[in-house]
Amino acid sequence: MAVNNPYAKYKTNSINTATPEELTLMLYNGALKFCNQAMAALEDKDYIKANQLIQRVQDIIREFQITLKPEYEISQQLDALYDYIYRRLVSANIRKDISMLTEATDLIRNMRDTWKEAMKLAKQDL
């Protein structure tokens, strides 16, 4: 029996109607949410949950990497940064190290904030 959850419908609708720029922002926000939840799980020594959450962040970072367009010079720089973040996430997960996860989270937050600013500037140019 399917449950009619208005929040789930709203979320699905907002994803289906979002622009590519908004979807990217949603992914950054999701990555940050999962990072914060993973940090809490590590603090609680819930390593299974932390592993699952960190892997979700890793999936988002890999998605960013595979959608880069190599014809743009900045793509190489972004790829290197995403690769670094990914490796920090893997290390944090293996070592159960909150400081490594915090570093990755800070980098993702900076990228998200830069993305938001770029979206604002692009709207001003219209």
Q: Give me the strand/helix succession.
A: HHHHH
From the spread of the alpha carbons, the general shape counts as: globular
Number of helices: 5
CATH architecture: Up-down Bundle
Name the assembly state. single chain
How is the biggest beta sheet arranged?
none
Low-pLDDT stretches: none
Provide the fold topology.
Blueprint lengths: L5 H11 L3 H24 L3 H20 L6 H23 L2 H28 L1
Helix pairs in contact: 2-3, 2-5, 3-4, 4-5
Describe the protein in words.
The chain has 126 residues and is mainly α. It has one domain: Flagellar protein FliS (Four Helix Bundle (Hemerythrin (Met), subunit A)), CATH 1.20.120. The mean pLDDT is 93. It is built from five helices and no strands.
Descriptors:
mainly alpha, Four Helix Bundle (Hemerythrin (Met), subunit A), 84% helix, 0% strand
Characterize this entry briefly.
The protein has 126 residues and is an all-alpha fold.
